[in-house]
Amino acid sequence: MDCSTEEVVKDGRLDLRFRADGWDVIVELKIYAGYGRNWLDRYLSVLEGVDHAYVAAITRSVPRYGEPERGIDRRWLGSVQWHRLLPGLRAIQSVDDHLSREWQLFLGVLEEEGSMGFTKANPELFELFGRLRETRKHIDEFVEALQMPLLEALIKALGGDERAASVYKTKGGRMHVARSWNGITDTIFLVPAGGPQRIRAGVFAYNPPVRFFVAPKNGRAWVARLAKLSPEANDAVKALVARGFRDHDLHAFLELDEQRLMSSTLEEEVVDWAYARFVDIVESGLLACTVGPVGSAELEDGMDDPE
Fold it and tell me: How many alpha carbons fall within 13 Å on the CB side of residue 208?
């Protein structure tokens, strides 16, 4: 068969079109996008009048909407998911050994980042998910146990006045533990006490290894708007990066490896490390700056993108 790609036809563009004597096959490729309006009718209308004229689709997941019913037209073959084609794609070989290696790497990247959809179950991860409630409770308790020591460390870094900082509380007056979908459980500190949210500290498990972190609130936004910040804020951000805070979101990390976790002085080690990071933030001058770019309201609230 001959194959054409991105062939332009009336009211559309065909991803793949295969032709041979007596054959005309159109294949629509989908990853995250859904089907367009009346797409199948448009594709069927351009098929040649041959014995084997068909339209098929390859989709990331089983389509939940827009999937034409099988049987409405014998030329519509239905859809198949990428993960079902993956073994066949992996079996493709090239006479060029370098190209063959690159092809396998390419498929691996597509599978890992999700373009192929759910390709296979990982029993180990399912087992871990079964302990999610237990895990969250354990991490919540760890963060809660550190809230007051961390607050005391922050107040000390700010000069010792008890009014210098407080912990963000729920409407019921309970000190709040924030938990995000991306594996971050932390405490938010208000500077001064009862003031705006300025510093976060907690457990960071977006990717292994699990780490404890300290960061200015909305660290990513501070960096993204660097060119629009006041000179003082600009210098403060650069000072934190120079002291080891991550250059795209101002997170500083302490790895919680097995040896540290099993230490009898775990909490003291974490608080001492966090105190040094609080000092870095205070000495950078960031807390004395306007909470946002010059001439704007404060930076948007919400969870920073972790990676």
Answer: 2
